[in-house]
Design goal:
alpha+beta, 4 domains
Length: 313
Amino acid sequence: MNTKFLKSAIEKKAAKKDDQHIAPVAGALFGVFLVIATLGAIMGDGRYPDAVLGAWVLGWTFIGIYFLFAMKVASQWEKVVVLRLGKFTGLKGPGLFWIIPIIDTAVMWIDHRVAVTSFSAEKTLTKDTVPVDVDAVLFWVVWDAEKAALEVTDYNSAISWAAQTALREIIGQMSLADILIGRAKMDDDLQKIIDERTTPWGVTVQSVEIRDVIIPPDLENAMSRQAQAERERQSRVILGESEQQIAASFAEASKAYVNNPTALHLRAMNMLFEGLKEKGALVIVPSSAVDSMNLGGMSGMVSLAQNNLPKEK
């Protein structure tokens, strides 16, 4: 979210705060009183003096205007700040309430539901001088309507700018690595900072959530190559450790053949047999091995076995 969009959203919220919430019931009553005044004037024409008819119409019209401006209805989630001759008199609502027209003014309708505000920090430098764009969401609620109306001009815009300023402050105190892997801690720090600033305004922050962290594309590519190189290094280390374990296993197995040459010959003959029984296999062994292990006879037996195998059709 850019700054212009944030300003536009704040202005729209500020424009709604002075809505006087004229009750539909009051408008209906005003219409009824006007109808009564009109019907009385029509039915009394010729029977009563004009002064009496005029007073009749004026009286019912005045009653209708009084109901139109004196009757107010606040929704279940609203509190209304009422001023009498400019002084705070109390909070009204929810439901039906009355004010004295001209003397009383319903200046602000406070919504007590949880509100959501999006805010961002663009091209903000981290502790290690990396420019980042961070988007976040703020969940807050008005717990004291009197303070929200009297202690700050526009609590909606004040909360938005306080959140954005706190986000820039937190980013400047953290390195890029801490921001990428420590979002939970960043959320908690932001909540504490923003809540300290908004509590005097009658607003409490329930939670802050970082939605996205955008870094420059060149840096993203460099980090990707670094991660790839790190994984390659780890794979080579794991391969080396595996080779060490295999060598240790072979060394342990070789102890069984140290004082048992017959077992060693049998093992060698078995390995040679497994290699020669495959079609087209070629095994080259030293001549000394042939003499010592009588591999010549073994080779003949393998060849004879291969020749006697049934041919594939």
